[in-house]
Hints:
Elements: E1 8-16, E2 20-27, E3 32-40, H1 46-60, E4 71-76, E5 81-87, H2 94-101, H3 106-125, E6 128-129, E7 138-140, E8 146-148, E9 155-156, E10 159-160, E11 163-164, H4 179-182, H5 189-206, H6 216-224, H7 238-247, H8 258-262, H9 265-268, E12 292-293, E13 297-298, H10 311-330
Antiparallel strand pairs: 1-2, 2-3, 3-5, 4-5, 6-9, 7-8, 10-11, 12-13
Helix pairs in contact: 3-5, 5-7
Amino acid sequence: MDGLSRGYQYQGRLGQGMFGEVVKAYSTQMKKMVAIKVTDISKCTTVYIEKFLPREKDVLETLDHPNIVKTHKIFESPKGTVYMVMELCVKGDLLNYINSKLALLERFSHKLFTQLCRAVEYLHSRNVAHRDLKCENLFLDAKYNLKVGDFGLSKTLTYVDGRVVLSKTFCGTLLYAAPEVLQSLPYDPKVSDVWSMGVVLYMMLYGSVPFNCSNFKKQVQLQKKRRFNFPKDPPVSPEAKDLIRRILHPSVEQRLKVSEILASAWVSKEPVEECDGASTSAAATPPVGSSWDAEEGPSAPRRVEPAFESREAEHQIYLKLASVKLQTKRS
């Protein structure tokens, strides 16, 4: 890593991606630990270099919110490696945390989801859509506060005659993607962000996904028919269940807006007590990782399916599709 030695002491790798890695380092200038996203331009696709990387840099340089991973600095080495120096969230990502607990206490889920709502409200107020909200892209700091990160697929929206210009390409992750996205219909990325938030909330409370199908068409059918269930364990309040139903609505017209989520009975209620994450597991019998089928009864306990972690394959497929579209436009 040709540019990392200048003011940063390497402390180890946090993760590996298609075009580089995320490392932990000590900043001698800021005198604290940071996370650094290292992107090797020589390994990147043309569409990523020309489209996604500039978007990500532009978005990150303008954001400042307590529930969004802070970007301290972005610089490029003479050899073409891009470094994004960011806040280090020491408790890791939300997916791994949920996997370690199987499910979260409702009061802790309330805290995290409220923070997610505030972050997305801030993004949308600045006409920025994240377009890949999922547990892997949500992080926890030392005090178990939620931080939204990974803006690699984000987009600053444009408007014509007061109306948002709709997106037309698939963007995101299958299990979190809204039905209009999976059907390749023109969609408002803000509205689709809300759907992903609903999946995240369900994940927090139950430790599993509401719709779990590897086939695009079948996944859309489940979404349209609203074929998801609320397990008996762990016990979840009627207000939380009602909110999930209203967020995971297949109709974009009837799906809640972020402002409506914040005003909902469940989110707007005062928290029972401050929850710092020390005791966040929703213990239950059968184990809370189990799912429920109206006809078959409770299934065997399980954690999040491995498909959740195969993000690179989906991302690469998307970038290839986007690259083809970009080349078509040029020709």
